[in-house]
Amino acid sequence: MAGVLTICRKELSDHLGSKRYLLLFALIVVLSVLSAYTGSEYIRDNPNSSFTSIFSGSMNSSFSFIYLMVLFGPIIGLALGFDAINRERTRGSLSVILSQPIFRDSILNGKFIAGVAALSLLAVSTVGIITGISIPMLGYGPGGEDILRIGLFTLLTILYLSIWLAVGLLFSTMTKSTTTSILMSISTWLFFSILISILATLVANAVVPVEVASGFQMVQGGNQTMGDIRDLEDMASAFNRTQTFQQTETSEYMESMEENANLEATIQKISPTYLYEEASQSLLGVTEGGFGQGGNPFQALETTQSVSSSWPQVTVLAVVLIACFASSYMLFLRQEIRAGG
Amino acid sequence: MSKPIIETHQLTKQYGEFTAVNNLELSINEGEIVGFLGPNGAGKTTTLLMLMGLSVPTSGTATVGGYDVVEESKQVRQIAGMMPEGSGYYEDLTARQNLQYIGQLNDIPKDEVDNRIDELLEAVDLVKWADTKVEKFSRGMKQRLGISEVLIKQPKIAFFDEPTLGLDPKSTKELRDILLKLNKEQGLTIFLSSHLLHEVQQTCQRVLIIRRGKLVAADTIANLSNNLLSKDMSSIEFELTEIDSDLIQKLNDVSGVKSVEQQNHKLFVNLENGNVREVSETITKHGSIILLMKPRTFSLEEIFLDYYKED
Ligand SMILES: Nc1ncnc2c1ncn2[C@@H]1O[C@H](COP(=O)(O)OP(=O)(O)OP(=O)(O)O)[C@@H](O)[C@H]1O
Ligand SMILES: [Mg+2]
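YS: structure for the whole thing
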C-alpha cells in the first residue's frame, strides 16, 4: 500500500501544479460565480424557492451550476485522466516505476485516488464559493437541512466528475498515443454534454411527433383528408380548427407531449450528465412536478425522500464508475509494458 | 562465486504465434558480470522483462535471487534493479526529485534516500545538475540518471538493457568503471544487454548469445573466438598490387584451398592443411606483387557475426 500512497502523492502534486488543472479550476470558479448571480436572482423572483435553488436556478434557465457541470464536468474529469498511463508509457517512465517493488495495480489506484482528490478539491471549493457569495446576495444563509442537501450534492458532484476521470483513465490505458486519447475524450465530451440532448429530441420528435400529429388527427377527425385541401384557405381553416381542437382537447395534446418528453428522457438516461442532473435536482429538493400539474413546482421533499428518490440515478452512476475503472484495471494488468508500445 | 542467483528453466514467451523467447536455460552466478548479446529482435529485452516480473512467461520458470519471477515478483524487484530499454524520466522534476520518487517507491527512509542520492549523483557525475529539471538534460545525462535510479535501491542484481546507448566514449568508460567497482566492492551481479562488443569484452567475464529466442552460446569471449578459429582452418590475408578473377580461379585450384574472398585490395585465402608456399608462388607467378602477407585476425564483430548468422 505504500506504493499507492507514494504514487498518489506525486500525482496529486502534479495535478495541483499543472497548468491544465489550474486553468480548468479558474474557469469553473469564474463561471460558478456567475451562476451564483443568476441563481440568487432566480430565488429573489421566486420567493417560494429554497436556498438550494442557487445551484439549479429554474429548470429551464440555461445557466446554473448544475448546467455548468453538465457542460464542463466531462472535460474536467477527462482532462485529469486521458493521458495518465499512455504518457508514462511513451516517455518510458512506466517501465522504470514498474521495476520498483510495487504492484501494477498500485499505479492505477494511485492515479485514480489522486484524480478524485483533485476533483474533490474543485467541487468543494466551487460549491463553497457559490454558497459563500450567495449569502450576502440573498441576505440569509442556508438552514441545517439546506447544508445537508448541499453536502450530499457535493458528494454527488464528486462521484459524477470521477466517472469522467475513470473514462479518461480507461482511454489512457486503451490507447498508445495521447493524441488518440485526447480525440476520444473530446468526442466523448461533445457527445454526452451536447449531442445527446439534441439527438434525444430529434429521435423523440420522430417517434412521437407532438403538434403536427395532433393537427393531422384533427384534419382526419373532420372527415377531410389532405387530398381535399385544395387551396391555402382550406389549409388555413384546417389549421385554425387544429388550434381550437388543441385548446378544447388539451388532454390528448398533453398526453402526446408527455409521451414525447418521456421518450426523450429515456434516451438521455444513458448519459451520466442527465442522470447527474436528475439526481442533483432530487437531492437539492428542487424537483419540478409532472408536466402541467400546476401548483408549486417546489413541493420540497424531505431530505430522506430526496435521497431515496435520487438513489436509482446514483446507483447507475456508481455502476458506470466501477465498470470503467474495472475495465482499465483488467486491460492494464494484461498489457505488455514496453517503452513506446 | 558459485551459487546461481539467476536461473531459468525452459523459459518461453510467445506473442500470439510468434515465439520471442524459446525454452531458454540460463544460469548466472552471484557476483558475475554477464553480457547478453544477440541481433535485433533476438529476445533480449523480452528476457529481461520476464526476469524482472514485468512480463509474464508463456511457459517455463525463472528465479532471481531465489524468488520466482511470477509468484514473488515484488520481492524480485526489491533485490533487483533494472534500467529498461528506452527508459524515461519525469521531465518536469529535477534529477534529485526523480531519485527521491524512486527511493520512496522502494520504501527507503527519507534520510537514507538523501544520503544515497548525494553519493550516487557524485558517482555518475551529476552533482552540478542535481536540482535541474530533467527536461534540460542531454541524452547521456539522462542515461546516467537512469543508472543511479537502478542503484538507489542498492540491489543485489542489476539488469541493464543497452545502458551505453547514446553515451560518449568518456561516459561509457565512466559507466564501466562504476559497474566494475560495484561488482568488486559489493559483489553486485550484473546482467547487461548490449550491442557494443568492445564494451562487453571489457566489462563482462562471460557472454550469453541469444538468437531468435534461443541461447546459442554461453562462454567467455576468449573461448568463443578460439572456437571459431580452431576448426583446423587457417586464413591468410594478402595485399596485392593486382587482383583479377583469373588469379582467384588459379588460387581456388591450389590443393588445400577451401575458399578465396576478395575485399578491395585484400585477398583472404582460407586453407585446410594447405600449402602456404604454393599459394604465394601462384600469386607471384601470375605477375602480382605481394605487398603484405599475414595470418588473418578476426575482429570481435566478425566473430560474433558468425554467431548471429541465420542458419
Ligand atoms: N508486444 C509484442 N507483441 C508482439 N511481438 C513482440 C512484442 N514485443 C516484442 N515482440 C517481438 O519479440 C521479438 C523479441 O523482441 P526483443 O525486444 O526482446 O528483442 P531484443 O533482443 O531486445 O532486440 P533489440 O536488440 O532490437 O533491442 C521481436 O521480434 C519483437 O518483434
Ligand atoms: Mg532490446
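YS: worth flagging: The first helix of chain A runs from residue 2 to 17.
IM: good catch. Also The interface with chain B takes residues 2-3, 6-7, 10, 14, 91-93, 95-103, 336-340 of chain A (CB under 8 Å).
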